[in-house]
Amino acid sequence: MKTYKIAVIPADGIGTEVINPGCEVLETIARADGGFRFEFTHFDWGSDYYRKHGVMMPADGVDQVRGFDAIYFGAVGDPKIPDAITLWGLRLAICQGIDQYANVRPTRLLPGLKSPLRADLAKDVDWVIVRENSEGEYAGAGGRAHRGLPIEVGLDVSIFTRTGIERICRFACDLARSRPRKKLTIVTKSNAQRHGMVFWDEVCRGVIKDYPDLDIDWMLVDAMTTRMVLKPGTIDTVLASNLHADVLSDLASAVAGSLGIGATANLDPSRAGPSMFEPIHGSAFDITGKGIANPIGAFWTAAMMLEHLGQKDAGDRLMRAIEEVTARGNVLPPDLGGNAGTRQVTDAVLASLESMA
Ligand code: NAI
Ligand code: MG
């Protein structure tokens, strides 16, 4: 029987509350399928680890997870530790260390859920946002000088490379081609950012010559936000830089009803290293420990992991189980307007999976 070795890193806050339910769901699917199984290895990295050891993960952390088939990640962030330390010390260190350059974020309105958009607009939301995940505005280049003096400066330098742009644009084009509408929107800001973003446009224009079958348009990032709200049905696959897609994808998950359902994959499309799957939300200090975190983002993430591992049927089954629960609407967490806790939502999805088996 095929065994998938999964590195599990729940990390902080509600990350620890949604990832174990996610593992339960994955085990249930594997059992029902009978053709594969999971071997989970848990890593206690994150802010508590930092408090004990002064680092978010061991120095060889990236190498420790390199040999796994996939990484299932919760969220990082602690009210008492600066975000730049927690994010760079763990999540970004893994993404960049393994060169998971394609971040993929699907958005659609699950049955039964309400969008803040008008129903006639929201029904057409079916997007995938592709985020450049290795460079751009989050390359980490820059510095601080003259600390504490009036002349103090802080610099963040965006890095756009031909290789980086070419590979993410090709990935987005291939993904758009695999979807029924064969439609791609390339997001830019080359009117104001006249070096890196102009280069982004140029390299993308070169890549899309190989995809004459795609319907491609271009949007400035600020105008893209209005299009997502006013004409959501005109959007399908979206390519954007690291920062732009970060912002657009939070808007996307709000349009879909809640940050609590958003899923994301950090892919190394070359498959030289493992890809990392995580709900898009953070550690949510305001609800940590209350048992009410919505686990659906972590479940949708698990469905993406199944597909990546070659178990698309199992991933589809998990999505159907989630949709069955949202459509019924009687067991929903508070962020979706209900009063069920994480445990009850998990049990409802597990029951739905069992009933399909
Ligand atoms: P957040 O995503 O943690 O929370 C934003 C709001 O959405 C909160 O009101 C929260 O209660 C709600 N929410 C999020 N996920 C939910 C869920 N599953 N169920 C119910 N409600 C949910 O973002 P915030 O507050 O900006 O950041 C908190 C910490 O998380 C910060 O330290 C931040 O750096 C970190 N963070 C980490 C991310 C990651 O690990 N990938 C992503 C985003 C933020
Ligand atoms: Mg974000």
Automatic annotation (TrEMBL):
PROSITE patterns to which the protein is assigned, alphabetical: IDH_IMDH (PS00470)
E.C. no: 1.1.1.83, 1.1.1.93, 4.1.1.73
InterPro entries: ICDH/IPMDH (IPR050501), IsoCit/isopropylmalate_DH_CS (IPR019818), IsoPropMal-DH-like_dom (IPR024084), TTC_DH (IPR011829)
Keywords: Manganese, Metal-binding, NAD, Oxidoreductase
Keyword Manganese: yes
Pfam families, alphabetized: Iso_dh
Pathway: Carbohydrate acid metabolism; tartrate degradation; 2-hydroxy-3-oxosuccinate from L-tartrate: step 1/1; Carbohydrate acid metabolism; tartrate degradation; D-glycerate from L-tartrate: step 1/1; Carbohydrate acid metabolism; tartrate degradation; 2-hydroxy-3-oxosuccinate from meso-tartrate: step 1/1
Protein's UniProt keywords contain Cell membrane: no
The protein's required cofactors: K(+); Mn(2+); Mg(2+)
Isopropylmalate dehydrogenase-like domain: residues covered: 5-349
UniProt-listed SUPFAM superfamilies: Isocitrate/Isopropylmalate dehydrogenase-like
Recorded catalytic activity of this chain's protein: tartrate + NAD(+) = 2-hydroxy-3-oxosuccinate + NADH + H(+); (2R,3R)-tartrate + NAD(+) = 2-hydroxy-3-oxosuccinate + NADH + H(+); (2R,3R)-tartrate + H(+) = (R)-glycerate + CO2; (R)-malate + NAD(+) = pyruvate + CO2 + NADH
Entry GO MF terms: tartrate dehydrogenase activity
Superkingdom, natural source: Bacteria
NCBIfam families: TTC
Family: Belongs to the isocitrate and isopropylmalate dehydrogenases family.
Role according to the record: Has multiple catalytic activities. Apart from catalyzing the oxidation of (+)-tartrate to oxaloglycolate, also converts meso-tartrate to D-glycerate and catalyzes the oxidative decarboxylation of D-malate to pyruvate.
PANTHER family given in the database record: D-MALATE DEHYDROGENASE [DECARBOXYLATING] (PTHR43275)
Protein name per Swiss-Prot or TrEMBL: D-malate dehydrogenase [decarboxylating]
